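> call design_seq(struct)
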């Protein structure tokens, strides 16, 4: 009788064991799925850079190559390079040539951090230009440059995460006051950092920035012909390194009538109120007022905005 009862209980005990094991199996499967998804996302992100760049070199800060017609830059997972909100010089024409980044007021010894995940391509010193500087190639396709630092904290070919310390604020190279010179480049071509980074509010302009080659040329034209205003007038404006692609000031050139400005704009995928307002020389508040948009109003792809 005892043997019979023991044999009858064995399948039940086995079923109980399987029942207890099932939740564990589901959890392990979920963990494996998340880990696999993270690996795939990292590989996909890294492949974006490989699609844009055919070369990895530690010898030069930037070299312009062919730009894509359009490219979506993922701004998620960012970290502001510095907590400073004071921009002393904007992107654009300055002293007869292009200033291809922005200057942010920092003090000697302030920590400078990586803007996104990526890999250090250049960590070097340039006496007549950037001083102590670092170039990071990010997985989202951007390259960022951090100049005039007092000290570099990273080495070439080192992987970094967004927010990792990469250097200390300084006044090295072609500079007349402590500050961070910050550039954002795509395929070696400088883009206005303000299209993506809002230092005043310590935020990015959106989850994504949709780069379009035609808009980039327009933005460059605006920047070359409009002298940007500095937010703080009593802070000395800093000299920056020469750029082989910088335009030389023209002499004895007759002024021509400016082309009429567009009065409307059709919203494209990836654009934000900030980027649209910036590209047309307006503030977000001005753009909202002209279009009678509330502070919580959202724009949609295909929506037509007015500028006057």
């Amino acid at each position: 009788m005892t043997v019979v009862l023991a044999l009858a209980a064995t399948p039940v005990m086995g079923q109980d064991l399987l029942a207890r094991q099932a939740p564990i199996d589901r959890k392990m499967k979920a963990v494996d799925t998340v880990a696999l998804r993270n690996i795939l996302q990292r590989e996909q992100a890294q492949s974006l850079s490989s699609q844009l760049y055919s070369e990895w070199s530690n010898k030069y800060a930037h070299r312009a190559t062919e730009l894509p017609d359009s490219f979506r830059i993922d701004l998620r997972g960012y970290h502001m390079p510095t907590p400073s909100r004071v921009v002393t010089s904007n992107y654009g024409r300055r002293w007869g040539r292009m200033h291809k980044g922005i200057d942010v007021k920092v003090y000697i010894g302030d920590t400078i951090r990586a803007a996104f995940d990526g890999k250090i391509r250049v960590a070097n010193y340039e006496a007549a230009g950037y001083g102590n500087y670092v170039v990071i190639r990010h997985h989202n396709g951007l390259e960022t440059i951090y100049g005039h630092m007092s000290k570099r904290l990273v080495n070439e070919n080192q992987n970094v995460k967004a927010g990792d310390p990469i250097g200390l604020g300084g006044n090295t190279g072609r500079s007349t006051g402590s500050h961070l010179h910050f550039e954002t480049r795509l395929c070696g071509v400088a883009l206005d950092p303000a299209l993506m980074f809002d230092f005043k509010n310590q935020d990015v302009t959106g989850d994504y920035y949709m780069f379009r080659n035609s808009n980039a040329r327009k933005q460059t034209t605006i920047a070359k012909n409009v002298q940007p205003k500095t937010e703080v007038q009593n802070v000395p404006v800093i000299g920056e390194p020469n750029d082989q692609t910088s335009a030389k000031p023209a002499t004895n050139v007759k002024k021509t009538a400016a082309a009429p400005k567009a009065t409307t704009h059709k919203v494209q995928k990836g654009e934000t109120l900030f980027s649209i307002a910036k590209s047309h020389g307006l503030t977000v508040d001005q753009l909202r007022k002209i279009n009678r948009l509330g502070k919580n109003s959202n724009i949609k792809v295909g929506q037509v905005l007015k500028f006057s």
